[in-house]
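Deliverable D5.2: sample structural annotation.
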Amino acid sequence: MQNIKITVAYDGAAFHGWQFQPGDLQTIQGTLQEALRKITQERIMIHGASRTDAGVHAFGQVAHFKTHSNLPALDLKRAMNALMPPTVRVVDASETGQDFHSRWMAQAKTYRYRIHRARVLSPFDYGRVLHYPWELNEDAMNEAARLFEGEHDFTSFAASTGSEEDDKDRDMMRVIYSSEVTRDPAACEIAYVVRGKSFLRYMVRKIVGTLLEVGKGKLTPADIPRLFDARDRSLSGPTVQPQGLYLMSLEYPDPTNSWATFKAQRPRPPR
């Protein structure tokens, strides 16, 4: 049996997120699995590194699946792309070790959130950015963004499960390796770029909403440590729309290493 690792890019606008859902709802996972079913005549389960939400895009989602098919990975890639809509593409595929797991072995993920600053939004960017043409203190936003680096309790920056009991038992500690607001004057855009070990649901979008509140002057960089301590999501900024969010890449240990040794190679959080 082969264990195949794939890298997937997709425009999430027309999909109901990554995770398979029953019924006629179109998802990325469901689209990939249906293509593989037609190719291999097997019911294959694809495991993704990140369960991106409806409307979220990806340049570098990583997933894996096991198959009895003898088709080489590159042939599987070509066949899948031929069967899927053009909004989803397998950009790389390779056979990997039997113990590789795209989610549990991921050492770091990088997300990018695009904010368009021009007065008029091009129709070609509609559904792919957050349009905010009004005044923002971008320097203050970047100063605040840096304060998310390190290990923190992100209760104030994550969605509720809908159950107080479940929320109480969740581990809300997360490690962020880098966090910054970048400028692209040529594109009239700023972007929030964050790299971390793992993320809570809506965490990046709620951080962006909080940074926008800093940019508007409703919060200051000095408020960020207070929000961490408060552990109250009602005090932070709103959860911004998903369309501006992109999963850029994932990082893994050396492929010659096994599950038993990959932990020793994990990136360390900044001091």
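Annotation notes: The CA atoms of residues 143 and 221 lie 6 Å apart. Residues 258-265 have pLDDT under 50 and may be disordered.
The annotation will be released with the project's public dataset once the embargo ends.
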